[in-house]
Specification:
Blueprint (H helix, E strand, L loop, with lengths): L19 H14 L5 E4 L3 E3 L3 H5 L20 E3 L5 H17 L3 E4 L20 H13 L4 E4 L12 E2 L1 H4 L3 H14 L7 E2 L4 E2 L2 H9 L3 E2 L4 H5 L3 H17 L5 E6 L4 E7 L6 E5 L4 E2 L6 E4 L4 E4 L4 E2 L5 E4 L1
Parallel strand pairs: 1-4, 4-5, 7-9
Antiparallel strand pairs: 2-3, 6-8, 10-11, 11-12, 12-17, 13-16, 14-15, 14-17
Length: 318
């Protein structure tokens, strides 16, 4: 049929099956009327194996050290080299789409952290993060005001959910292995989004995803139905807190250590206030004369030199 895989794009184009550029322009115009912006998902790091672009430009393909295209065993896609002519093609396409549709943001798909993907055909193979950053700068020049770079978090691929299926449906050995894997990273996960339909939803990692200003993907609502009332209330409260502060979350600072993240502090240009998400109890210095608003509990007061946070509470420090 005419419907292609969104996971394995043939080119950096808006598919005719979903209306092409005219319909995206109409969507962006309507969003702007409502005070919103449209963020596109795009994959500047890979193309479908069937893409005519790769057949015309085999030098655009990134290769693994064993002499095969860098598909990382996905099978239907091939990584691209941002140090080839593909980079200029990508910049030109994004510029055209920006002018033609007026989209306001872009979510750059990771292809397993494409910033560190290495083309081993190069004389001195090295990660292509420099080209990723250059691409981001070009997008900013075009007027793209929101850029999400997937997969370049401190622990690699940017998810913080746990697959639920082994917990619930596997045999005892598989379930214990799944629980063990989750426990090894619990307290250290800090991801941008949930991407599996059957993630194990629990309030802690859910709150962490919001604290990362991440998108919460679709998950199995039966998991929510089976949660106890306390966990559901915590997720509802996290959503309420996030809605109140998301417009002030511009620049992120992780608080903690590589072993455990205690929380996240956010600032924005031209404002003194900070938004603090606390993952546990820790002492935080608010600054002289600051006032702390605990929006989770609704309590506001003058801050001491340091104050002790409450787990899963969100604060505004004025």
């Amino acid at each position: 049929g005419s419907w292609g895989s969104g996971h394995a794009p043939w080119a950096l184009e808006i598919g005719e099956a979903i209306g092409g550029e005219p319909e995206l322009r109409a969507l962006c115009d309507r969003a702007h009327d409502l005070g919103m912006k449209i963020v596109l998902w795009s994959s500047p790091a890979h193309l479908s194996n069937s893409s005519g672009l790769l057949q015309e430009h085999p030098d655009w393909i990134a290769w693994r050290r064993n002499g095969t295209p860098a598909d990382y065993d996905w099978g239907d896609i091939t990584g691209t080299s941002l140090r080839s002519g593909y980079y200029d093609y990508a910049v030109d396409r994004y510029r055209h789409l920006r002018e033609a549709t007026g989209f306001g943001g872009i979510w750059l798909d990771s292809f397993l952290t494409f910033g560190v993907t290495t083309d081993f055909r190069e004389a001195q193979p090295r990660p292509q993060l420099d080209r990723v950053l250059q691409l981001e700068r070009e997008l900013v020049k075009m007027g793209v005001t929101e850029i999400h770079l997937e997969g370049c978090g401190p622990f690699g691929l940017s998810t913080c959910g746990y697959p639920a299926e082994p917990y619930e449906y596997g045999n005892l050995v598989d379930r214990l292995k799944a629980i063990g894997r989750a426990q090894r990273i619990r307290g250290r996960e800090y991801g941008l989004y949930r991407y599996l339909a059957d993630n194990l939803v629990e309030p802690g990692s859910y709150y962490r995803a919001l604290a990362a200003k991440g998108a919460i993907g679709v998950f199995n609502l039966r998991v929510i139905d089976r949660m106890d009332a306390k966990d559901r209330r915590q997720i509802v409260q996290a959503n309420r807190d996030y809605v109140r502060v998301v417009d002030r979350m511009e620049r992120r600072q992780l608080i903690g250590s590589p072993k455990t993240w205690n929380g996240v502090a956010w600032t924005r240009s031209g404002a003194r206030e900070r938004i603090l998400f606390a993952f546990g109890r820790f002492h935080y210095p608010p600054g002289d004369g600051a006032r702390i608003e605990d929006i989770t509990s609704g309590v506001s007061n003058r801050a001491p030199r340091t104050f002790l946070t409450e787990p899963w509470h969100t604060y505004v420090i004025h």
